Amino acid sequence: MRRHIYRACGFLFVGLGAIGAFLPIMPTVPFLLLAVYFFARSSPELEQKILDHPTWGPQVRDWRERRAISRRAKTMAIGAMATGAVFTWYTLGAPWYYISIAILVIAGTWIATRNE
User: What is the mean pLDDT of residues 60-64?
Assistant: First the structure.
């Protein structure tokens, strides 16, 4: 029973990661990290499939092995958050813009300080 729940959670997070691949507001790799965690406990074949993926596999392996984020991934993540903040400023204005800036500063600082 537990394996089925872990597998379902793995598929859920793969789905969220797929959505994040197309939306600049949502991340991809953190959801894939969660998917790998759940697949490791339910389906090693699906875990390996993510780890072998040509685009996302290296990022997942870097985080898993060294807690590292590549410079390109850092730049893309911080750039996407900044784009989201500018979009929020143009569309929603205050106070939502300030919330977006706070997320950019907090999450961007955390991302920028990770190993490369």
Answer: 91
